[in-house]
Design a protein that fits this description.
Layout lengths: L7 H15 L6 H9 L15 H10 L7 E5 L5 H8 L3 E6 L2 H10 L6 E4 L13 E7 L10 H8 L3 E13 L15 H9 L2 E10 L7 E9 L2
Parallel strand pairs: 1-2, 1-4, 2-3, 4-5
Antiparallel strand pairs: 5-7, 6-7
Helix pairs in contact: 6-7
Length: about 230
């Protein structure tokens, strides 16, 4: 489930992130990465051209019936996860800050029912407040520095409808010490902030990378407390 990418891709990401952070712009590097990939998905470390395996496994386990319910995909990348949710019957909105990534999605899926939007996570549409029955976040938070995480989580939580579900897939670190990155895996202390905002963790799965037991991925479901 942890496919390898060319060594040049992670190194380039690290360089772009460092430059972006020097400019106090933690998200500015995404568009640079996608545009300079020139259509080569192997230059985007998280791009697989297939559904995230942890999402696919969740869909097989839960068998959710979208039935026109609204779903939101945060940082949708090249669109495979959004398309998988649309196939389950959800009315999907998927956004990314990268104009190139969204154009790439629209090129790959020209007849898609998904609404693909160029949107900044830090400047969301106010009408999205508690508007989505399913909010899916995978690997976006971990791509952002620890300094902005409380703000990011504070922006994501209110997107979930009162009876809705937040599904988070992330790499996990077992200590609160700041890791070397990117990515910067999330800690329990950071994840608990969702609960401080009123969401309850209702289910958690963990997955260990076969060839490196120090790397763990989590799949967590949240819903609003009563």
């Amino acid at each position: 489930m942890f496919e390898q990418q060319p060594e040049t891709a992670p190194n380039k990401v690290k360089s772009l992130v460092e430059q972006s952070l020097r400019q106090s712009d933690p998200t500015g590097w995404f568009e640079v990465l996608y545009s300079e990939a020139n259509g080569d998905y192997s230059q985007v470390p998280w791009a697989r051209l297939k559904t995230n395996p942890y999402l696919l496994d969740w869909l097989n386990l839960r068998q959710p019936q979208g039935n026109g319910k609204r779903a939101l995909v945060i940082g949708c990348g090249l669109g495979d996860d959004a398309e998988a949710l649309a196939q389950q019957g959800f009315k999907v909105t998927a956004f990314d800050i990268s104009t190139t990534a969204i154009a790439w999605c629209q090129q790959r899926f020209p007849n898609s029912s998904v609404t693909y939007l160029v949107t900044d996570l830090f400047a969301l549409d106010p009408s999205w407040h508690q508007a989505f029955d399913l909010v899916f976040e995978t690997y976006t938070i971990q791509a952002l520095p620890l300094s902005v995480r409380p703000k990011v989580i504070q922006l994501i939580a209110p997107l979930v409808a009162p009876e809705g579900t937040l599904l988070v897939i992330t790499l996990f670190r077992h200590t609160d010490a700041e890791p070397d990155g990117p990515p910067w895996p999330l800690s329990d202390k950071e994840l608990n902030y969702f609960q401080e905002l009123g969401l309850l963790e209702t289910y958690r799965d963990s997955f260990v990378k076969d060839d490196n037991k120090a790397i763990t991925a989590l799949r967590i479901e949240y819903s609003w407390g009563k």
